[in-house]
Design brief:
The protein is mostly beta strands. The chain is 0% helix and 46% strand. It has no helices and nine strands.
Length: 133
């Protein structure tokens, strides 16, 4: 077994169009979590299996993130060309929001967000299903 990164992470996801195939990019909730002294993950990461580099965006010490879900820009888009969706619980607001990140530039942070007036439980998991015609 080979350690890929020193960044503590969980909830690995990938572009589901690559399920069962070789893939380059993995997406994770990271920085914090069990074994770190912080119960929650505070960042979203993109790991590049070709370069062995991790890009991360940290939401802050009082924001807990869920697993990121990859959404392709289009069915014909290349691997990694799309968005990451994640719910973020903001302890200061006592409410969550949906964060949207450019999957190719995770380190730049959210490009959009949708605020909710309530908390989404941290155990919430999701998937994306595009429109079928």
């Amino acid at each position: 077994m080979q350690r890929l990164s020193e960044v503590v992470c969980e909830y690995p996801r990938l572009d589901e169009r690559r399920g069962g195939l070789a893939y380059r990019y993995g997406y994770v909730a990271c920085i914090g979590g069990p074994g770190t002294g912080d119960l929650f993950h505070r960042a979203i990461g993109r790991f590049d299996h070709d370069t062995l580099q991790m890009q991360t965006f940290r939401f802050g010490d009082r924001c807990a993130v869920s697993e990121p879900v990859f959404v392709a820009k289009a069915q014909s888009a290349g691997e990694g060309e799309g968005y990451l969706l994640a719910t973020v619980f903001d302890e200061a607001r006592n409410a969550s929001h949906l964060a949207v990140l450019d999957a190719q530039h995770v380190e730049d942070g959210p490009i959009a967000r949708a605020d909710l007036d309530h908390r989404v439980p941290m155990g919430f998991h999701g998937s994306w299903r595009g429109e079928t015609r």
